Amino acid sequence: MHDILIEEGVLAKNDGIAGENREMLRGRGIYSINMVSSPGSGKTSIIEKTAGLLDGLLRLAVIEGDIETDLDAERIRRHGVPAKQITTGRACHLDAHHVHHALPWLFEQDGIRLLIIENVGNMVCPAEYDLGEEMKVAVMSVAEGDDKPLKYPALFSASQALIINKTDLLPYTDFNMHRARENALRINPELKVFETSCTKGTGLQEWCGFLLSSAGAAAKAPVK
Amino acid sequence: MHDILIEEGVLAKNDGIAGENREMLRGRGIYSINMVSSPGSGKTSIIEKTAGLLDGLLRLAVIEGDIETDLDAERIRRHGVPAKQITTGRACHLDAHHVHHALPWLFEQDGIRLLIIENVGNMVCPAEYDLGEEMKVAVMSVAEGDDKPLKYPALFSASQALIINKTDLLPYTDFNMHRARENALRINPELKVFETSCTKGTGLQEWCGFLLSSAGAAAKAPVK
Fold this sequence. Notes:
The structure is a homodimer. Chain A has a seven-stranded parallel β-sheet, sandwiched between helices. Chain A has one domain: 3-Layer(aba) Sandwich (Rossmann fold). Chain A is an alpha/beta fold. Chain A contains eight helices and seven strands, in the order H-E-H-E-H-E-H-E-E-H-H-E-H-E-H. The interface between A and B is large, with 40 and 40 residues.
């Protein structure tokens, strides 16, 4: 009980900063998403492919959250995309304060219209922390099993989109796509579900189309 | 800073209860391990296979940690193994208190010599919580990528053994086993590394042999 009280205080403080982040990002016309998954589901590969497909259409920047190392930011920068690494040390998720500190860096980059935040690989804790993004995107890989939405419902109910990645591994696993979709939609009937393979290049155009139209719709919406 | 101070208080309290758990388990001659990994690395399948191989040799019981659902405990019980489900709700890891509450149930089971605790699927937070186990076992799947030990070092340095699972997927991924082992051993040179596939049944005898000999050595060690 005591732990939960502490946590609620932490979350309330986080939500306040997240609100500021959102306002600052909107004020500069930057659409932002927060990608959350287990380690190794392929978030970084999806961002690399997204950067390739959006090249020339929408300038993007990436904030990379990791416990240690800047391997992921290095991978992103190779595509000519500005990337800021945040190493969280012992913290198992990004919080709004981490992102807040990266905003001055972001606003120095030229003409950014899309911010992709890649959270620490963790299917549990990041689900609870609003970073100020417009959309949370859950990612899971076929190798993780089709029961994950039932076992980690908080992420799936907090997300607007779900990317089921590594579909190239489908023939070699007992992952049932129909059941996975059913499990995910049972938790959150509004989820947009995308099936992708970064090695085969499938499903990524659909995902990028959705991302572009979401960013476009947000840009046209009246400022609240 | 404030968050870390709170956390240290929580960890100190946890460690005290973990010490009690360890003493109670040792007192009853029960060897215990704590399996930690991302969601979907195959912990439950490994436990199922382990139960099959140890059948008739060493009676075991399982404590299953999950945010929601008792799917995993159900899977284990089908093998005739006593299993207790702990659903943690919002908590992203098991703590010593959770396990403490399950000990009366455990001590009611007949002739148990081995307790396997399957932690919540999370590569980050469970690494910090001693549950009172004798050995922490990290599990990662080939589908997660060979860079995981570098990105989540706390788990690998806290573990005595590492199971690299789903080796049947090796031909379909760019996972480099040599690099994975190198990365893991750079973090923790003492790690015992096992390569397993639950679908092909490979590597599991080695793992079970190690588990049996660890439990045997502990049983012969003078009580501290």
